[in-house]
Amino acid sequence: xxxxxxxxxxxxxxxxxxxxxxxxxxxxxxxxxxxxxxxxxxxxxxxxxxxxxxxxxxxxxxxxxxxxxxxxxxxxxxxxxxxxxxxxxxxxxxxxxxxxxxxxxxxxxxxxxxxxxxxxxxxxxxxxxxxxxxxxxxxxxxxxxxxxxxxxxxxx
Length: 156
Fold this sequence. Notes:
156 residues, alpha+beta, SH3 type barrels, 6-stranded antiparallel beta sheet
């Protein structure tokens, strides 16, 4: 899991908000604007001098001061040339498994559960912590966040 502060993201980098460390009226303002834990976020660009930055959250663009962005912790999307980790898929996404980056024991365990390359699954619930719930051939499975990060998927 790659964690960064929102202020450290590069242009085009995506992730999911894990923690908001801001306090007081700034925190409440961020929450009111949709900057909440579990939300997907994308760094759009920074002003010429680096402050403010523009992010995309919940379908709209928002400008934040670097100081405010430094109080927001983001789990950066782990993209590979084949796709993204299952842990980064959003609830409701339909995805296809393209690979598993794990040892033989875990690969065999996941294969025995039916998680093989090419299989389609629907993400029921995925958060910054806790299990990732999926629907696999009309069967619900709960996977730890760590195991879900080892499963590479592509959105359909």
